[in-house]
Amino acid sequence: MTEKTDAAQGTFGNKWPQDFWDSSWSDKDYGVTSPTGQMRRWMEERIAGSTPGSCFEVGCFPGGHLAFLGEAGYTLNGVDLTPRTTPEMAQWLRKQGYQVGAIERHDFLTYPTDTQFDLVYSNGFIEHFENWAEVLLKHAALVKPGGQLLITVPNFRGRLQHWLHSLVDQENLSRHYLPSMDPILWAKVLRDAGFDIQWQGYFPEFDFWVGVEKRSLPNRLLFYVIRALIPVLRVLLPQTGSESSSPYCGVAARKMTQRAE
After folding, report:
1. Residue from 92, 120, 73, 104 nearest 28 by CA
2. Distance between CA 165 and CA 145 in Å, rounded?
């Protein structure tokens, strides 16, 4: 499997029970997200030229993206319900020499919004909620005026991606709320909330990953065939951010200091 973005926590329409995440992350190692991963490269492009300030990650365990931003000079904050979030992950971040603010084990949907941050982001969070717009606005409330919001999710709505996941990843597919995977809708919600949209769309490089589930032998073999074809598909498929084949979609937005009339 390659880069995976799932990090959803909490309740309120979430189709993944918390014990699933607790079990999934129980033996996860800490480390900085790979510099070759699409998600990190996308984030680097979005924050290029920005002065490092405070950042906040929604669904922050296991901390790979926080570590990347720590290397970039940001003060790290985040929330997650996974038990290892604090003190274990928070201590690991501090031991790396990063500036660490508040890393908390808390349900994001009841998290207070009286503190705001220069950069707020989540990777693979809002697509686990049927009321995704409400969850997105909760992110937006944490952004300082002039600050930046970055949102990414898997693109299971795309025709090719949906077909491939329906073949070998049915359980994982069923646990995501596909109507939420639409950056055009996110952009509309954020514009109405006083944000300027800097980027919206689909990642350019084809990839394919699956969730953890029991698979029959034919199903596993089919998955291996698909994985083996990825280099070929990367050549054949569009490299311009195809809605059909892209593995991820996202939006980057900046909160305006004054609301437009």
Report:
1. 92
2. 39
Longest Cα separation, the chain: 60
Domain 18-155+177-209+247-255: which CATH number of 3.40.50.150, 3.30.1490.20, 3.40.47.10, 3.30.70.1060: 3.40.50.150
DSSP three-state, residue 203: coil
pLDDT (tens digit per residue) in 196-205: 999 999 999 9
pTM: 0.88
**Domain boundaries, given as residue ranges, for the chain:** 18-155+177-209+247-255
3-state secondary structure of 189: helix
Look up residue 258 and give its DSSP letter.
S
Nearest to 15 by CA among 166, 179, 141, 164: 179
